[in-house]
Amino acid sequence: MRLINLDNNATTRVDPEVVQAMLPFFTDQFGNPSSMHSFGAAVAAAVRKARLQLQALIGAELDQEITFTSGGTESDNAAILSALEVMSNRTEIVTSAVEHPAVLTLCAHLEKTRGVKVHRIPVDRHGRLDLDAYRAALTPHVAIVSIMWANNETGTIFPVAKLAGLAKEVGALFHTDAVQAVGKLPMDLKSTAIDMLSLSGHKLHGPKGIGALYVRRGVRFRSLIKGGHQEHDRRAGTENTPGIVGLGMAAELALKFMDDDNTRVKWLRDRLENGILQRIPNTFVTGDPLERLPNTANIAFENIEGDAIPFLLSRVGIACSSGSACTSGSLEPSHVLRAMNAAHAAVRFSFSRYNSEADVDRVLEVLPAIVERLRGFPSSGPGERSAEDLQSGLCLSSRRTGSRS
Ligand code: PLP
């Protein structure tokens, strides 16, 4: 069976050029970049090159503004915890109701354990931030604003440059989780007021377990991980040099092919969306109709619950994901869909440069019958489902943690 990956917001295939760039750093180039001798110096130069490649992708002013981390989650945690430390006279955080758990779980923890006040700004039915509520939450008590650049489920893009400017007016730091946006949207950080930005290698055809945090020159920063002096004292621990080199190459390729990839990927995404809307009644696209990642389609199917569609698609070799958190046999929409007041679970199809027209046509070939079959399925509340229904995959709770990457 041919496998079709339409779940690229979860993770992407590593580009073969990225793999080639990484290989020597597992073998001959095994040196520690902190060492004084030649083994170390060659590897230190490769780390510097990767920093420059990332600088170019996000439009940072200086390569030293980039610190390598283990990924998006660590970068998000490092940014928020540092801000609370350097802005110790301020005890509030402003974030959105639709952030990734890397931000929301940390905020809930800080609320509970440190008495930090967290403002979770609501969104509308397209996942757009409520700007009035945002403005109202901004006071001189706010240490940091953390609002994502683009949402991982809906693809809705937030106006982060404008939000950062407003945060500056009350002296708060501005961080953005740009894990889903980096490599897909053009960026020029030096022309914005964004202080910190998180990114992750595996979302842009780079390796897993590597990411970076951008910290603008002049912004005070306290390292999350204490130890040696690596990464200009911003992240202790011997560097993941193959990962760093791979991330650098992924960044270079993303920048080089961004326009072409986006044009093609958007065409495929729109073809799928239009095809579904035309062929299957009672379906609609969630997410902002205009300000949306070019690769993301999040589609609600009325009267179908939970993981049913992704499960049945996976049986014919198509990977996508659903917007339900299916825990303990109850079918709950994800926190993002709940924040959007969505009445229906939605299915996310997310594309990459490795997708083709044939992938879209295959989905359009099999999906109408799947939806028809599921809609013919006796409608019942989660509590009324039989064990057989659950086992047959309509609820994949054992494999889910309740959130979507
Ligand atoms: N933030 C967003 C918006 C994401 O989509 C993800 C990945 O799922 C993360 C953060 C976490 O990134 P990582 O998997 O590199 O820790």
Question: Could you characterize the architecture of this molecule?
Answer:
The structure is a single chain. With 405 residues, the chain is α/β, with parallel strands linked by helices. The chain folds into two domains: 4-9 and 258-397, Aspartate Aminotransferase, domain 1, CATH 3.90.1150; 16-254, 3-Layer(aba) Sandwich (Aspartate Aminotransferase, domain 2). It is built from twelve helices and 15 strands. It has helices at 16-22, 38-58, 72-86, 101-114, 131-137, 160-169, 230-233, 241-279, 308-315, 335-339, 357-376, 387-394, and strands at residues 4-5, 66-69, 92-96, 117-121, 142-146, 173-177, 196-200, 211-215, 283-285, 296-301, 318-319, 321-322, 324-327, 330-333, 346-350. The strands form four sheets. The chain has a seven-stranded mixed beta sheet, with helices on both faces. A four-stranded antiparallel beta sheet has the order 9-10-15-12, with helices on one face. Strands 1-11 form a two-stranded parallel ribbon. β5, α6 (160-169) and β6 form a beta-alpha-beta unit. α3 runs parallel beside α4 (101-114) and α9 crosses α11 (357-376). The longest helix has 39 residues, at 241-279. The radius of gyration is 22 Å and the shape is globular. 51% of the residues are buried. Mean pLDDT is 91; it is low at 325-330 and 379-402. Residues 71-73, 100, 102, 148, 152, 177, 179-180, 200, 211, 405 line the site of pyridoxal-5'-phosphate (PLP).
